[in-house]
Amino acid sequence: MSGTLPFVRGFEFSAVAAGIKKSGALDMGLIHCEASATSAAVFTQNLVRAAPVVVSEVRAKKGRCRAVLANSGNANACTGEDGVRDVETLTAAVARGIGDEPAGVLMASTGVIGERLPVDVMMRAVPELLLRRRADGAGDFARSIMTTDKFEKVAVAEGRVGRQDVRIVGCAKGAGMIAPNMATMLGFVWTDADVDNLFLREATAAATDATFNRIVVDGDTSTNDMVVVLASGRANGHGGSPLRESGRGGGAAFEELLRRVMMPLAKAIVKDGEGATHVVEIRVEGAASDKDARLIARRIAESPLVKTAFHGCDPNWGRLLAAAGRAGVPVRPDGMAIKVGGVAIVKRGVGLGKERESEAKAIMRGAEYVVEVDVGVGKGRAEVVTCDFSEEYVRINGSYRS
Amino acid sequence: MSGTLPFVRGFEFSAVAAGIKKSGALDMGLIHCEASATSAAVFTQNLVRAAPVVVSEVRAKKGRCRAVLANSGNANACTGEDGVRDVETLTAAVARGIGDEPAGVLMASTGVIGERLPVDVMMRAVPELLLRRRADGAGDFARSIMTTDKFEKVAVAEGRVGRQDVRIVGCAKGAGMIAPNMATMLGFVWTDADVDNLFLREATAAATDATFNRIVVDGDTSTNDMVVVLASGRANGHGGSPLRESGRGGGAAFEELLRRVMMPLAKAIVKDGEGATHVVEIRVEGAASDKDARLIARRIAESPLVKTAFHGCDPNWGRLLAAAGRAGVPVRPDGMAIKVGGVAIVKRGVGLGKERESEAKAIMRGAEYVVEVDVGVGKGRAEVVTCDFSEEYVRINGSYRS
Predict the structure, then answer these.
(1) Nearest 5°: CA angle at B267, between B106 and A399?
(2) Which DSSP helix (H) or strand (E) runs through A381?
(3) I need a surface site. Which of A218, B77, B105, B155 has the fewest CB within 10 A?
(4) Residue B12: how many CA atoms within 13 Å on its side-chain side?
(5) What DSSP string describes A201-268?
């Protein structure tokens, strides 16, 4: 999917190359809600929070939004009060352009940490950004938030939700520094669904937890993560009531559509993990609880030794068992089992031989596969999606700033 | 320091190339205590424990030891009951050779996980191992436990401890997979001190916590880690009483000597971290407690983005702040300060400019330096030693088994 994203009623988009990036690539983007949209947002759990996170988190609380300003090339993180003022200046300029209050404008940034935004350069670009708004501009917006990303990440879902014919479109950015708990990752989702604000918050939190918070690239979490969901309500042409809860009037169908947009975005982030060549879904079962299973899955997904073994297409089950064993929750070493792409290579804690490993190795040469780990304790289960760890990752991150 | 390790009264050593490693390098080693030595041991906290750990942990409880058998090239981990029997068979052969019970023989293994030990090959090597015992064989022993290690790790400390003139010598093995909580790391320490068993346990646990548990190579912990301290008591020629507690009769001096042997061994492990080119001491202060400080220091020390920045000699303080912010304990973002090799680059959460960063960058080109992070909350402090993350690490671990 690329530039041909379907329209969603109530939204316009634009992007410009303001000059934040030396490369001349698109580096500022705007989502404009024609009328005030119902909104919900989720922010990084890192205690060190970038200025756009600090400002947007407060503004997002009221649940209504007129525009989202985004930039790449500079994260505006660790910039103190100056950084906060820069967000206020830029969002005020956008607000003036669309005839609203600054409080109706959110901002998201990604890029290098610790440098002031080039506010003058960006202020000069705001009029053009406002001028270029188009209903079919979403692809450009998706490209404007890329940093080391190799491809833009977009997803679409459509369906009948109660009495509404709903379309949901989203885009995301993220390459290195991705871990559960929202790591340098931006996600923007817009829909014409008519959704009550409280329910939109619940649905957004649940979908984020089930998708973006289940991916790992390098276990680091960022100062700038943000997921924003905007709902214009335009799908409700019949004057019916907005979606209010999961259990009634299409609420569950809406939640399902939201996950169907967010999950491919999350997987695309892993696929585009810096230097990644394999996407691996870690499915843990047999843990004492789902929570335990998730801790084990993450330990495996974040282990550099496991990730380098994935890179070498090596069914090194000893590293998988060792990672599971150090998750800090119960596992039964002599009850553990491992399958790679359905091929059993460990049973009752011991290997099943070289022949099985050869089969597994063949599967591991593929771009995407599933590793199942049963830890032999209870009924808890969880999935996490991760990628391999390559020399390229080190090269990218050893020289990102220079 | 290499082959010329000083003698310690009461101990003999040997090593052979039994053929576990295809390379023909030394792969079996023996420490023989001429008379039963007082002993203390610390084992991996991983729930998946190799057979030699399972067996040695039980035997170590009695606090007396006649011999330690070690091998490299095969970890005897995830080998089920067969693996345990193999340990029993091999240690029984050593016990017969020195005229003791198998329960007096500990075993330590390191190498690939999930394969049975080549017991026949190893049993054939036991007589030679027994025959070659020499008081000056410690250097060979140190080499026999190496796997991907580039150099042997040995250390010596001597001093007056109460009425005893004590010598402590140690060696260690460890390269990849090193993290706090005892990660694929073997440490052996022997001394002629006369030490009460309870006190030796306390001193060993404390010294391990202050040294081996403060290092990070890649955050993975292993199935096989073990630190063994053996005390022959031969330094007590005067019929005095053994060292019994920290507060009296030289106990504190003994603890200090023990740390003076273990700390250089721990640092050598980091220096020899797979692909490591820089050794970096992370000193955290200003945390709410020492425990919090340690969590923050570890988060920084384990962050792939921080470690790749170290590799690129990049004073990327944003990554340091972001890692501190996601440690799960309080930090004050606008009160944080960072120094690299004494050069302040961040104060009150914001950068101090490019000039300071250039100075820091010059320091980071060195092989060893200190990074100080003040998180601005309280008085808690902790140090952790880590290394950078290089392409070489990925190469080594992506192809270790093939």
Answers:
(1) 130
(2) strand A380-387
(3) B155
(4) 13
(5) HHHHHHHHHHTGGGEESSS---S--EEEEEE--TT-TT--PPB--TTSTTHHHHHHHHHHHHHHHHHH
Q: Whose CA is closest to A276, among A218, A358, A349, A333?
A: A218
- Are the C-beta atoms of residues B35 and B100 closer than 8 Å to each other? no
Query: How far is residue B149 from each of residues A307, A349, B152, measured CA to CA in Å?
Result: 21, 28, 7
* Burial degree of A7 (CB within 10 A; 0-12, 13-18, 19+): middle
| A-contacting residues in B 304-333 (Cβ below 8 Å) | 304-305, 308-309, 311-312, 314, 316-319, 321-326, 330-331, 333
Tens of each residue's pLDDT in chain B, 402 residues: 445 789 999 999 999 999 999 999 999 999 999 999 999 999 988 888 999 999 999 999 999 999 999 999 999 998 999 999 999 999 999 999 999 999 999 999 998 888 899 999 999 999 999 999 999 999 999 999 988 788 889 999 999 999 999 999 999 998 654 443 334 689 999 999 999 999 999 999 999 999 988 887 655 567 888 999 999 999 988 778 899 988 888 999 999 999 999 999 999 988 887 778 899 999 999 999 999 999 999 999 988 888 888 998 999 998 899 899 989 899 999 999 999 999 999 999 999 999 999 999 999 999 999 999 999 999 999 999 998 888 776 776 665 443
Closest CA to A214 of A289, A277, A328, A302: A302
How big is the CA angle at B139 (ends B135 and B140), to the nearest 5 degrees?
A: 90
User: A144 with A15: CB under 8 angstroms?
Assistant: yes
Dihedral sign (CA B135, B140, B146, B150): positive
Cα–Cα nearest to B264, from B176, B352, B368, B351? B368
Q: Which of B148, B274, B319 to mutate to test the interface with A (most CBs of A within 10 A)?
A: B319
**Interface contact B177-A305, CB threshold 8 A:** yes
* Structure-block tokens of residue A11: 């939204």
* pTM of the entire predicted model: 0.81
* Beta-strand pair A226-231/A186-191: parallel
Q: Are A305 and B179 in contact (CB under 8 A)?
A: no
Run of H or E residues at B82: helix B80-98
SS (H, E, C) A312-365: CCCCCHHHHHHHHHCCCCCCCHHHCEEEECCEEEEECCEECCHHHHHHHHHHHC
Nearest CB neighbour to A46, from listed B322, B330, B394 = B322
Listed in sequence order, the DSSP H helices in B272-352 are: 290-302, 304-311, 317-325
> Residues B397, B274: contact at Cβ < 8 Å?
yes
Phi and psi (nearest 5°) for A352?
Answer: -100, 10
* DSSP single-letter state for residue A389: -
Q: Buried b vs exposed e over B157-171: b needs ≥16 C-beta within 10 Å? A: bbeebbbbebbbbbb
Whether the CB-CB separation of A61 and A218 falls below 8 Å is answered with no
Cross-chain Cβ contact B326/A220 below 8 Å: yes
Tell me the C-alpha to C-alpha distance, in Å, between residue A303 and each of A115, A320, B351. Answer: 31, 9, 31
Rounded to whole angstroms, the Cα distance separating B401 from B208 reads 30
Q: Do A325 and B391 touch (CB under 8 A)?
A: no
Shortest CA gap A241–chain B (Å): 41
How far, in Å, are A18, A139, A142, A317, B339 from residue A126 at the CA level? 9, 19, 17, 53, 38
Which spans in A272-316 are helix H?
290-302, 304-311
